[in-house]
Design brief:
mainly alpha
Length: 156
């Protein structure tokens, strides 16, 4: 018997598979479609989990690099201006980084001064209380939760 070409044998196998599927009762014809859909969903969930795990693993690198790229795009025109004034691009970038560091330190100092002056004013207010009032801080608890008081059920 002569060997059949692969295409003929392959076509014969496909016909066998089609014949098997048609052997299923019409009520169960939807089962293979649901099986394919379910396994496709499982594959999609697994691929999504792998992608998120990979992003979580490299997040320590990705976030600073993204921040640096955004800063580079924002300050590129300023580097161009400094370049036109005969300053090397690397020196211009260094000058911009130095300016950003100075700005950050200035904002931190201004914020700490504002917070400390607010604390000082608050302390002065608490020492200027009238002599009839207690200098002990008032409780923020509702009356039924304060120590030495009756419970809420006992108040009824």
């Amino acid at each position: 018997m002569a060997e059949e070409p692969d295409g003929v044998a392959h076509g014969h196998r496909q016909a066998e598979r089609r014949g098997r599927q048609s052997d299923l009762p019409p009520v169960l014809s939807w089962v293979p479609k649901i099986g394919i859909g379910a396994w496709s969903f499982v594959g999609f969930v697994a691929a999504t989990a792998i992608v998120f795990a990979a992003l979580g693993a490299v997040s320590e690198i990705v976030l600073p690099m993204t921040f640096a790229a955004v800063l580079a795009v924002i300050f590129k025109p300023l580097v161009g201006v400094l370049k036109r004034h005969k300053l090397k691009p690397s020196a211009g970038a260094g000058l911009i980084v130095l300016g950003l560091a100075t700005l950050t330190i200035g904002v931190m100092v201004a914020t700490s001064r504002a917070c400390s002056s607010r604390r000082i004013r608050s302390a002065r207010r608490s020492t200027r209380q009238s002599p009839t009032r207690s200098t002990r801080p008032r409780s923020t608890r509702p009356p039924w939760m304060r120590p030495g008081r009756r419970s809420r059920t006992q108040l009824r």
